[in-house]
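Possible regression after last week's pipeline update?

I re-ran a chain I had predicted before the update to compare outputs. Posting the input and the new output here so someone can diff against the archived version. Not blocking, just want to make sure nothing changed silently.
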Amino acid sequence: MVKVKQRRTADCVVGGFRYAAKGGVVGSLLLGLYDEAGLLNHVGYTSSIASGDKPAWTKELEALKGAPGFTGDAPGGPSRWATERSAEWQPLKTELVVEVLYDQVTAGRFRHGTKLLRRRPDKAPRQCTMEQLAPPLTPAQLRQLLEDQDGGI
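New output (post-update):
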């Protein structure tokens, strides 16, 4: 048996960030997507920023501190993983868009942390919507997609 995971990506607005526990640099980016009502909802985070890039990211993020941040669901709600420090985050002006890799979505949130792939200066924040999180393809849908593209498996 071979397990094959679908690689899925999403373009997300960086609605806030958390500082790392030590060093005064960014530890994680807080990711958001707009819903049908136009509210930016927190959908997860990414902490896969290379150590050498963190000072530059921190400088850029600190320049974006301010409202509105998340206008819908915000980070810091009850969680079995929550700590006092995890509730502390900095809201940002909604100008920065990044593409992340994820594997699963549960209840409108990334199930696990995501991997930062790249910045998306070509993408407007309002283009980052919940519609990107469509359910993964079923095996039958995936097979049909492959047949349509390749003329057969």
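Follow-up from reviewer: compared with the archived run. The chain has a mean pLDDT of 87. Marking as no regression found.
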